[in-house]
Amino acid sequence: MKKPTHDASRRRFLKVLGSASGALIIGLPAFADTPDELLGRNLVQLNPYLRIEPDGTTVIGARDPEVGQGIRTAEARILAEELDADWNKVIVVPLILGVTAVNGEPHWTFGHQIASGSTSVPAAWNDLRSVGAAARQLLLRAAAARWQVAPGSLRTLRGEVIAADGRKLGYGELADAASKLKPASEFPAPKAASQYLLVGQDAGDVDARDIVTGRQRFAIDEWGGDTLVAVITHCPYPGGKLAHLDDAAALKVKGVEKVLTIPAPDPARALGTQQLAAGIAVVAQDTWTALRALEKLELRWQPGPHAAQDDSALAQAAAALLAGEPGKVVRTDGHFPETLKHAAHRFKAEYRIATVAHADLEPPNARVQVDDRSATIVAPVQNPRATLETVLRLTGLPPDRIEVQLPRAGGGFGRFLEADYVAEAVMLATAVGKPIKLMWTRTNAFANDTYRPFSVHQLEACADRKRKLTGWAHRIASTSRLAGREPPPRWWLSEMHPDDLPAGLIENLQYGWYPLDTALPRGSYRSSSHGVNAFATECFIDEIAHELKLDSLKFRLALLGEPRQLPYRGHGGPVLDTGRLAWVLKLAADAIGWGKPHPHGHGFGLACHFTFGGYVAHAVEMSMEGDRLVIHNVVCAADLGRVVNPLGARAVLVGATLDAFSTALRQRISVKDGRVVQRGFKDYPLATMAQMPHAVQVILVPSQANPTGAFAMGFPSAAPALANAIFAGTTVRVRQLPIWPELMRLL
Fold first, then answer.
1. Over the stretch 645-683, which tens digit does the pLDDT of each residue have?
2. Is residue 79 over pLDDT 70?
3. 714: burial class by Cβ within 10 Å (0-12, 13-18, 19+)?
């Protein structure tokens, strides 16, 4: 497939239409992939971000997938702020994937539409402010024409245009006239921050009431009157295939339509854009019938050429690799080996990170309707473009004949960046010639995940007689999540970031990555490799401070040094501000009572990390009551730039903290006889409320910087802060995730 086309132009255009009812409808005809380039040469389809009805109701379209990160609320607040809308009259609706066909190729008309890497708010900040400001300008012009005054003499407030003499017109009264005006060729300047009434103020999630009352529809709730249900059993061996099938008994079950074979994935296709495993699907009138018939299938599977290994076997393979030269030298500063040789103090440790599953509460599912004219996809997706490209390949339909709807998803965490389950549903719908609702079971979801990579981290460091760090080496052996998606030379890109700290802080430094192989499919997980690399780095820093008999907070602050901006390549750059990271570290430490007297047996731990442009630190207080770990207090301090919705940001940071604790304490995917052992939450335990802290105190740093996201940022520093607190309270140093089994072994 050719690269999707777009028109790159610095000039900005607006598309304005009026409806038969007199509503004002405003959208951007097209967007470039870069946030500051709004495109507009192909005015072939109206894409409404905003609709103002005659009664004053303001309908705002949210373009990015909602997977619990609160993006529908944040995007609507950005646009409504510039519009000066009355928030009590705002309705937020999800947009579909915006796509048209240009010379047969997809042309993305809504711009950024992905839930990954906490990119949605940064991308929306300039885009949606422009839309809101342009709409407000049209309403001002419409009012000025009616009153025969200059637009500059008018102001707006909460859905009204107000004249200097106090006269008012509601937006609904002006919608029809505004829709007939030609927009300016350039977008007006957005508001000054001092004028903000919505941005920076708390707002509840726009879906909250429907969620708590049970009215919220998730992707799994979407059905159609003539839809058949499909359930699948997959080959339990990665890379395996079907050896025997007897479906006679299954086909005798009343209500069963067909039993279909899902072929093994094509090794020439990228992982995640097709089915992950061979499978057998039962298509029936309802879910219960399909599940009963599935149990009656007589199946035998043949293992693949490469058996899946458990983490212990992978650790042995990593040890052999780490004894040699890295597959990729990621960064080299100074002369670490020579510095280590002559150092007064030397330190060494190894950390092991388990393979884990996403464990989304909503399992993969998809409703697909496809024929030779069009296709409609309704599924929990984080990357609708990848979904569309998969459907394009399977159906051959033009891009503008494929509709990808974006209902709210019950989780995500990276699992729904893949389109494998959509590919299965499209194949089944095509085969039966009717709409299909594909439903994965919980067992399928655990056994056929794109798991977080396993990794082993070897760290070495050295310090001079003044106890200042002079050298650092970090070597990672991991099962790259890019394997099967990118050529081997690029696999390191998802595993190690060359400018992650302490790079730039220590004169002699080495980063190296070693490719570890596994048959298990891998994929993105919350915070990407930051979530595991920070554990090794921040725990090792704590170890060094303890060995040097230095306070962990003071040691970290000394390492960060004077506030300055370090170059940072990749997502979150172009700079890393050490002063902003030091500040959140101080805030978290102060709030937890660092350095003050505390009860006997209570341990305090710290950690901090720079993730995707955000600066976050955690402080944890814990104790052991017999064999029970009690987390007494947790503080999360964050500098996320300007925060659009503080209530939403705090909720996301609390959720990320608890998710990080749950993942770190007990979660692990194990493999036996070449197949995944876990089948559900019974053998993959999520943390219970009793095991978690009663509250997480969140401190948001006021900032004038452009906003970052929040969903990924609160994850990386939480687990190492907990591990460091455990050491302080028990003198047991746990160097493995999950923490709990190792802690019980060592206590």
1. 999 999 999 999 999 999 999 999 999 999 999 999 999
2. yes
3. buried
Please state the three-class secondary structure of 322-379 as a single string.
HCCCCCEEEEEECCHHHHHHCCCEEEEEEEEECCECCCCCCCCEEEEEECCCCEEEEC
Give the chain's radius of gyration (CA, Å): 27
Alpha-carbon distance 95 to 469, whole Å?
52
Evaluate whether 425 touches 380 at the Cβ level (below 8 Å): no
Distance between CA 623 and CA 209 in Å, rounded? 37
Enumerate the β-bridge partners of residue 39: 30
One DSSP character per residue, 517-542 reads: --SS-B---TTTTHHHHHHHHHHHHH
Q: Residue 629, Cβ neighbours under 10 Å: how many? A: 21
Instruction: Give the whole-angstrom CA distance, residue 420 versus residue 6.
Output: 27
Cβ–Cβ under 8 Å, residues 74 and 121: yes
| For residue 462, pLDDT beyond 50 | yes
d(CA 645, CA 547) in angstroms, rounded, equals: 42
Name which of 460, 462, 421, 419 is nearest 438 in CA terms.
Answer: 421
The Cα 103–Cα 59 span in angstroms is 32
Query: Distance between CA atoms of 715 and 621, rounded to whole angstroms?
Result: 17
C-alpha angle with apex 561: 555 to 564, nearest 5 degrees? 150
Interval 180-218: pLDDT, tens: 998 887 878 999 999 999 999 999 999 999 999 999 999
Mean pLDDT (whole number) for 241-270: 97
**Do 671 and 310 touch, CB atoms closer than 8 A?**
yes
Asked whether the beta carbons of 581 and 638 are under 8 A apart, the reply is no
Nearest CA-CA partner of 301 in 262, 356, 355? 262
| pLDDT surpassing 50 at residue 457 | yes
Strand intervals (E) in 226-337 = 228-234, 241-246, 256-262, 279-284, 298-302, 328-333
**Residue 610 main-chain phi, psi, to 5 deg:** -105, 120
User: Beta 697-700 vs 628-639: how paired, if at all?
Assistant: parallel
Q: Judging by beta carbons within 10 Å of its beta carbon (0-12, 13-18, 19+), is residue 602 exposed, middle or buried?
A: middle
> Maximum CA pair distance of the chain?
84
DSSP structure class, residue 575: E
**What is the set of domains in the chain, with CATH numbers?**
15-212 (3.30.365.10), 219-305+359-447 (3.30.365.10), 325-356+451-746 (3.30.365.10)
